[in-house]
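## retry 2 of 3
previous attempt timed out at serialization; input unchanged, resubmitting
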Amino acid sequence: QVQLVESGGGLVQTGGSLRLSCAASGRTFSTYTMAWFRQAPGKEREFVAAIKWSGGSTYYADSVKGRFTISRDIAKNTVYLQMNSLKPEDTAVYYCATDKDPYTSWRRAVRAYEYDYWGQGTQVTVSS
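## retry succeeded, writing output
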């Protein structure tokens, strides 16, 4: 089992920044891809960004490319999402997730159902 705990959400004005953290514990050696998703009220869960635990390669949704940066700290078993130039449309509950498949391609990594473990979510609200 793997446990994921997100933190760092909050209320910020348009153009502001936030950094989300996702601390992983448990059988973390079995995880390979870590990702951030978000879900706004009345909308489906949406892929934001992903990172390979080994090697650190990254992949982003077009809507956040150039504004958000995903990174990881292996020693701390933590993944971060640095969010800059925030917009009201970024308002959502942000979830981190991880999978057990070492062969997840980026094409699969954008699909929520590919992930085995999820955190409880952290609210991000961007005011206009």
